[in-house]
Amino acid sequence: MPRCLLLMSRRSSCVASPPRPVLVLLCVVAVSGAAAGGGETAGCDVSLQDVNNLTLNCSRRGLHTVPTTWPQKIENSVDKDGDVRVTFFNNSITNVTELPSVPGNRIAIIFKSNAIVEIEDGAFSNIQRLVYLDLSNNQISGDVLRSEIFQGPYNNTVYNSIALETLNLGRNQIHSLDRYLFQYTPNLTRLYLNNNPFEILDHVTVLALSSATNLQVLDLSKTDIDSIPLDAFRGLVNLQQIDLSGNKFVNVPESLSIVGSTLQYLTFNNNPIVELNDDSFVGLSNLLELEVGENRYLEEVKRGTFTPLKKLRILHLCHNSNLRYISHNAFRALKDKWTLKEVYMDDNNLSELSADLMPWSQLKILGMTGNSWLCNCDLAEIITKQEAGTKFKDGDIPYCAAPMKYAGTYVTNISMAFCPTFDSTFANKRGFSISNLRPKHVLWSIFGVAVVVCIGMLVGLLVNTIKAFYNKKLRSQPIRYINLHSDTSYA
Ligand SMILES: *[C@@H]1O[C@H](CO)[C@@H](O)[C@H](O)[C@H]1NC(C)=O
Ligand SMILES: *[C@@H]1O[C@H](CO)[C@@H](O)[C@H](O)[C@H]1NC(C)=O
Ligand SMILES: *[C@@H]1O[C@H](CO)[C@@H](O)[C@H](O)[C@H]1NC(C)=O
Ligand SMILES: *[C@@H]1O[C@H](CO)[C@@H](O)[C@H](O)[C@H]1NC(C)=O
Ligand SMILES: *[C@@H]1O[C@H](CO)[C@@H](O)[C@H](O)[C@H]1NC(C)=O
Ligand SMILES: *[C@@H]1O[C@H](CO)[C@@H](O)[C@H](O)[C@H]1NC(C)=O
Ligand SMILES: *[C@@H]1O[C@H](CO)[C@@H](O)[C@H](O)[C@H]1NC(C)=O
Ligand SMILES: *[C@@H]1O[C@H](CO)[C@@H](O)[C@H](O)[C@H]1NC(C)=O
Asked: Is it the case that residue 294 has pLDDT exceeding 70?
């Protein structure tokens, strides 16, 4: 399906790519020869890049339980500062039991795509240096996620914490989080809760979230929520990035403004919003990148929508198939201190843009493909005089859809000879001003006034004549005070 491929490649230029954790990029090239070891891990591959870099690959080994020992090889081959990655991707593990200790300083464990329904208390207590844990695509429910599962080793009547920084709980069966879930994970910085059936962020979930005070990245996409309680983000004084895509929001949640001083990346795709307006992004004064895409009910971007975003560098406003109007004041009050470098408006339902929407020449990259552009003089001014035509990426030049004679032509190709020269007098003439009055107008006005005065005098004369007539006729009768109107009703 070439059409689909085209769409995908378009999307890649348009959709934001948020920074990913370093450990995920860990990629081991050299494969060590001997993978000898004990018990269930016999079939796993040990890959040793160097003393600082080891991967134990237990993916797709048909495992049903967590191994109780590691291959001997991993004990003495890793430096105490090394990175170790253990992956159980795509097995059939149902119960995460206590894992044996793992050498190294930054440990990643991946349980993605198993059948986990239970996690034992202290499952990771032998791996205090666990920094990355992927439990995504399992059958974990909220009840399984007790704070005890993340307990570190027992020490003098208390449990220590573990080093966990990234926790992926995406694609599970979670409705709610335990309020103490993050008690033993004080360094948690990235939390993925996407694709869970939360529906509402209840009181305990809100308490759990707001206790993760070091959180920088939070993924709440596809969780069926339509609102976020104000208190949910109260404690998140370090939150930089949030994904709210694929939910049921009809407005951008107001509670985001609580984290407005730290939030840098907001992804808000695929929600049933109808318009964006000057309330949508209130308080998000530190946002660097905003993505609002695939909102198929979105029709209008109104006056002042982006005004609060005083530091915005990248705007993705793509794939909103019903978006047909962007107010010329959408960036009101931002034009003097312009910060935007990249604006993507591809694949919407736009046909016109105002030339004064933004200072086009200050952009580095502009995307406008996949709309039904009316190639009029406004567009010509944007493309030529304001140099927008030089900002398109290679191969991403938009086409005109109308008028008929330009349909299918690149917007950069059309000659705008029929447009008035782009000077300020052109814009002014659209308004009315005294200087526009010509002598002809003045004469007609005087004539009009004269006609009105004449008619007035004639009516007056007529009235006096009628009065005189009645006065004569009714002289014998007692004086009655009548006026002309009531008089006619007697006639
Ligand atoms: C581990 O190896 C990968 C691939 O060679 C490399 O990119 C990464 O930086 C290494 N990590 C460390 C901590 O040396
Ligand atoms: C891990 O092992 C599985 C099964 O042998 C293999 O398909 C996969 O490519 C391996 N992964 C890595 C990163 O080597
Ligand atoms: C996991 O492996 C099974 C075969 O054992 C396969 O059918 C399934 O699609 C795999 N799942 C994922 C997420 O890769
Ligand atoms: C999980 O394993 C632990 C330890 O072996 C055991 O006590 C517990 O009953 C198991 N849970 C389930 C649901 O199998
Ligand atoms: C155990 O707790 C004591 C204080 O109660 C602390 O000094 C010590 O560092 C802890 N040990 C470990 C291994 O964390
Ligand atoms: C959390 O991070 C700090 C700073 O990197 C570190 O000193 C501390 O030991 C970490 N906490 C745990 C429980 O590992
Ligand atoms: C764009 O809007 C027009 C009406 O203005 C409509 O006919 C057309 O179907 C819309 N296109 C899409 C992709 O929704
Ligand atoms: C644009 O103009 C060039 C040269 O004037 C011409 O070769 C090309 O076919 C035109 N393309 C479109 C899509 O208008």
From this structure: yes
Tens-digit pLDDT profile for residues 6-37: 333 334 445 544 444 433 333 222 223 233 33
Dump pLDDT digits (tens) for 32-57.
323 333 346 667 889 888 778 899 99
Mark 27-42 as b/e (b = at least 16 C-beta within 10 Å).
ebeeeeeebebeebbe
- The answer to whether the CB of 349 is under 6 A from ligand 7 is yes
Tell me, in angstroms, the distance from the centre of ligand 7 to residue 296's CA: 11
- For residue 60 and ligand 2, the question of a CB distance below 6 A is answered with yes
Residue whose C-alpha is closest to residue 139's, from 173, 109, 107: 173
Structural domain range at position 283: 240-345
DSSP letter for each residue of 333-372:
T-GGG----EEE-TTS------TTSS-GGG-SEEE--SS-
Whether residue 284 is contained in a domain is answered as: yes
CATH number at 341 reads 3.80.10.10
